[in-house]
Model the fold of this input.
Amino acid sequence: MATIQAQTFESLDSPWPKGEPNTGYAQYFIGNSYLAPMDGGLVNVTFEPRCRNNWHIHHKQVQVLICVAGRGWYQEWGKEPVELKPGMVIEIPEGVKHWHGAAKDSWMQHLTYHKDVQQEGASNEWLEPVTDEIYNKLK
Done:
């Protein structure tokens, strides 16, 4: 049986920076992620292989993800996971429980921004981790 080797960040050949370790939100991630803030509220998030954030909900704001490098996953509560590949755009409606992260064998980068973040009461609610049982079913 062949062993899958995870690629290195450098093998992504991405024009986007890796960023700095995401220490401020590390408690809400399994694995390591990195942040590179851009202009206009846009943030480049880099996930190492197997890294994913906890289930979470954005209240009174819409989150947009634009996958720019590598391969990953996005899943809404109660729905099938969606494979993220470069060029894919996901608009996450306000109040939807979801998670996103890298595939088992690939780094992944996405740009993200929040629409309506200035709205009164806009917030993130961090929830439980995505279990290995859920994650390990993914390709």
Summary: The domain at 35-135 is CATH 2.60.120.10 (Jelly Rolls). The first strand starts at residue 20 and ends at 21. The chain has one helix and 13 strands.
